[in-house]
Amino acid sequence: QVQLVESxxxxxxxxxxxxxxxxASGFTFSSSGMRWYRQAPGKERELxxxxxxxxxxTTYADTVKGRFTISxxxxxxxxxxxxxxxxxxxxxxxxxxxxxxxxxxxxxxxxVSS
Length: 114
Fold this sequence. Notes:
By secondary structure, the chain is an all-beta fold.
């Protein structure tokens, strides 16, 4: 079955960096666009970034544009989210998702705090 396993979350100071990873299995990863979402306490889940199956096309939410970078390694069935210049408002649980399908991972907690 489809599995998405996120990792790499933790505590980071404002202005710091963190790299999240999501390892996928159970489907043809190299044929699937992938998305990162996040959900902060008391807020709805929001789309953070998208990457096409080949990695040639990416899009970002305005709130993270210029600070976050989504990438993928199809040989490792892994999608990444590089977070730079972290802000307090980036605190959330981060999830990866296969584009157009309802499967979610368990998420990884990112806390930005001094």
